[in-house]
Amino acid sequence: MSKLKIKICGIKDTEVALHAIDCGASYLGFVFFEESKRNISLKNCRDILDQVKGNVSTVAVTVNPSIIELNNFSKMDFTHVQLHGNENLDYLKKIRDKFDFKIIKSFGISNQEDLDCIETYSPYVDFFLLDSKHHDNVPGGSGKIFDWEIIKNFSVNKTFFLSGGLSIDNIESAINLKKTNYFDVSSGVEVSEGIKDKNLIKEFIIKAQSTIL
Questions:
Q1: Residue 131 bears catalytic tag
Q2: Residues 33-43: pLDDT tens digits?
Q3: Dihedral sign (CA 58, 195, 33, 186)
Q4: 126 annotated active-site
């Protein structure tokens, strides 16, 4: 498998963004979903991107984005867009044909059936992201891990990010699944919802890096 890649999601300020990069994060995620405590405005995000551009992959995390929204992300030079909505195959193809950024498609996982449809998306995306599922169909993860036994025999011809409740307490076990080297963390490096903690970010990345050696 490829080298360890850590994505710190829900970035809201420059200081945390630069700290995450210094600690070894490969991706920074910026949430554009008004109902989320991690939501960020385009203006504030532009200010952060001006400071980090070229030093890390940047991900616009969104739900059922319009073409206008995607155009904004493209103008901001995001390297990736992460989709958490009900984007169908036709729309994914349209995004792929129109824009240069790479596409991460998120799937909520709670049982084997949730994995069955993933392969059909493969021609239109660059990465998958497997997350815990909200049972009330709220977009995004629940901040809890799902049963990793479900993906024990999962095989797909795309790299996937493992997400959902990752923290310093379980990242070693996640890596030792040997299913992926791409990991997405948000609430696991926060002191309260939406508020990142620099020490937790550092400890999480150090623990991940020491595990994979």
A1: yes
A2: 999 999 999 99
A3: positive
A4: no
